[in-house]
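User: I'm putting together a small comparison set for a docking exercise, and I want a reference complex before I start. The sequence is below, and the ligand is hexanedioic acid. Could you produce the 3D structure with the ligand included, as structure tokens?
Assistant: Of course. I'll restate your input first, then give the structure tokens for the complex.
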Amino acid sequence: MSLKTDQDKDIIEYLLYAERDAHEVIKITDEFPELTIEKAYELQDGLLERRLKENNTKTVGIKLGLTSEAKQEMMGVKEAIYGYLHEDMLAFEWEAIDRSTLIHPKAEPEIAFFIDEDIQGENITEEEILKATKYVAPALEIIDSRYKDFKFTLVDVVADNCSSTKFVVGSKLALPDSIDLGNIGMTMSKNGSVEQTGTSAAVLGHPLKAMVWAANLLGSRGKGFKKGDIVLSGAMSEAITMEADDTITAEFDLLGSVSVSCK
Ligand code: 0L1
Ligand code: MG
């Protein structure tokens, strides 16, 4: 994408450096209330282009956000959103994340889809998503909005790559058609105490519905899922905060568990 204006460039650098320096910033719509959602996705594209270069990394997938009715109601919106996952966001169960590199992280339990063929179009179906998915796996997404107090509008959060910062995928892979993906229960604990319970039905009714929604929106923007992508399909419960020395574990029916620690 070529940047159109100095304003675009300034906003992109504002968000890029907020992430790099782990400091929270005032939301961009306070200064630029005229920004539209389409413009926010353009700013996201520009931010990601810059981030790929600055961090010498590459895109490894996509994350879906605001996929629960509860969160949409909380924000007064009726749509989900998407952002991109970069290789340097991939964290591992055996390697604690350095809390000082993040602003105010929260963990969300999600089902990860491993995409095995390119999918692009505006009329993608659940069957096509299932056919293109090699495996599903338990995952934790760590979100870390760059905005003060995690408060923002839809435009702000889209421009900020939907609060993406880290993600961890569990080691147990399942065939997507071997389980009822729409009815998976989950408990998420912090340091051994259960803090959230949830279900995959919270993800737009069924994670496959969320995947179809995202594929078709991406298609309308000339994009799609790519072979090799990991797609995080959306949170199955509310997020929980994560501080230094915390260990968060999500245990999913049938899919197994996944943990992440902070140091
Ligand atoms: O992944 C998500 O559902 C979060 C998207 C952005 C909203 C937030 O940061 O809470
Ligand atoms: Mg998420």
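DSSP finds seven helices and eleven strands in the chain. The longest strand covers residues 133-143.
User: Thanks, that's exactly what I needed.
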